Each structure stands twice: as C-alpha cells, then as structure tokens.
Amino acid sequence: MKRYYAVIVNPIAGRGKTIKHFSRLKSITDQTGHKFDYYITSGPYHATQIADKIYRDYDAVIAYGGDGTANEVMNGLAGTPTPFGIIPKGSGNDFARSLNITNGFQKAVEAIVNYNLRLIDLGTIGERVFLNGVGIGFDGFANYRSRQVKLFKGTTAYLWAILTSLTLWKAIQVNLEIDDLVIKDSKIYLIAIGNGFSIGGGFKLTPHASIHDSIFDICQVADIPIWKILLNFGRLKNGTLEVVKEVTMHKGKKIKVSSDFPLPVHFDGELFEPNVKEVTVSIVPQSAYVIGGWNT
C-alpha cells in the first residue's frame, strides 16, 4: 500500500544539520516506494501553520529537525486523527528517544514506512501543547543559556550551559501543587515534568517516565550545593538521580507552580513566556497517534 507523507523541514535545526543532509534524506525516501512531499519552514511557528493546513492530505506528517520542530508540528496536528512522525536531526532529539527512533536516516525512514502507530499522551502548558517535557527553574535557565552558545552543538552545548549556569542560578521559593498534593513555600532548584524520560540530549531527570501511561513523572530538586550537583552529575546520564537526598520524585496529572519571582520555563526546549510567575501543566492522555520504532 502506497502512503503519502508530508515532511516539514526546519532548515536551522541542529545548527543547520537538517539542510546539510537534506539531499541524503531525500535519496533514501525516494527509494521507499512511498510518496514524500517536503515543506521548508521560514521562521518560528511556521511548522505549526503548515501542519494545520495540510494534515488532511497525508497519511502522516513528519517533523525533520529536533524537539522544537517536533513541538511545532504537533501543535498543528493536535486534535486531528493524522499521525505524527519524526526524523531526528536537532540538538537534543529527546522525544525521538521515547519513540525509539534513532538519528540514522535509514532506520528512521524504515520506522516511518513501517507505520507502526500508537496513541501517546500529550501535555499542555498555557495555550501550547508539548510532547516531551517542561523544565522550571535551573532547567529553564540552562535552556536559555544553551541558546547563547556559539562554539558547541547538541549535548555539548547543553552541558556547557549547565556548568556555566551553576554559578548563576539560585534556588527560589515556590508553591507547588500536584493534583491533590500541595507543597507551599518550598525552596526549589528545579522542577522537571516529564512525559518522556530525558531532556537536554539524554539527561534523565525523569528516567521512569512513559509517553503511554497517562501521568507525568515529576522531579523536584530542593536547594542543593554546587559541589553536590557536580558530585552526582553522572546520575543525570544513568538515571539514578533520585537517590540524592535533595531529590523528590512525584507522579501527577496536573501541576501548578507559582512564585513571587520570575520563573524560567521551557517546554520541549522552547522558551515559555518570559517573567511568568505562575504556570499550569496538564496531561492529555492517549491523545495523539505517533509512528515509532517500538520495542514491544
């Protein structure tokens, strides 16, 4: 059965890696026997506009880029029956990890044409939909810093942002509500809300999160000294951060964070509204069809 795919290309994703390797991707898709049409974005939110306009004409709409590109495409598809797919070529590619989609073009395209669909959970923050996760506090601040990096790319850029942010970011007082649990006037270093299990190019703040279980995993880190962060830095990669005393793990469907201080916030690596002092994050269970390279 011949299928029709739309591929939305972010030409600046991965600091230009998408365009650099575009011809190689096209040569692979041309050999599949399926129809692939390509749409090139020209600026922020253009991918959302394209997806919203064309989704009825295709068997799936594919994001070619990173987590930000995936987020924009899904914001155009959310609420429609058209499946979403991804060919990862961004800086982080964390959502692709939850789909078991690799960075290699051949395997990513094979997964797409195999058309193995599953329903996944989405999240909402304000008026926006997200796929992978939300970071508040240090995580949001480091994400902002990573955008200022010129010398490094991908995980290296995010690592640089983390290390340089350690001396700049200080824990702040917040009120945290998770479903029926209220944690008032708590001093937090960061709050990570995970639909997927990793952020920042493979850092596992919510290592047990699943995009299928209809609930978020939440990592709450209290005020913690820099030396202790550095000592336990390897736990971000192997997913064992919860053994650290300052770390508390929760699960929840609706999370509200408020503070008297501006909250640095990112969703899927995209910056949320600047200087916001209150944010509400909710899960939308089993709400989008996605193509994955599933193990089971």
Provide the descriptors you would attach to this structure in a database record.
single chain; 296 residues; alpha+beta; Tumour Suppressor Smad4; four-stranded parallel sheet
Describe the model.
The protein has 296 residues and is α+β, with helices and mostly antiparallel strands. It has two domains: 4-115, Rossmann fold (3-Layer(aba) Sandwich); 133-285, Tumour Suppressor Smad4. Helices cover 27% and strands 33% of the residues. It contains ten helices and 15 strands. It has helices at 17-20, 22-29, 46-54, 67-77, 94-98, 105-114, 138-146, 154-165, 226-231, 234-238; strands at residues 4-9, 35-40, 60-65, 84-88, 117-125, 128-130, 133-137, 172-178, 181-194, 216-222, 247-252, 254-258, 265-267, 270-271, 278-291. Strands 5, 6, 7, 8, 9, 10, 11, 12, 13, 14 and 15 form an eleven-stranded antiparallel sheet that branches. Strands 2-1-3-4 form a four-stranded parallel sheet, sandwiched between helices. Strand 3 (60-65), helix 4 (67-77) and strand 4 form a beta-alpha-beta unit. It is globular. 46% of the residues are buried. The model has no long low-confidence stretch (mean pLDDT 92).
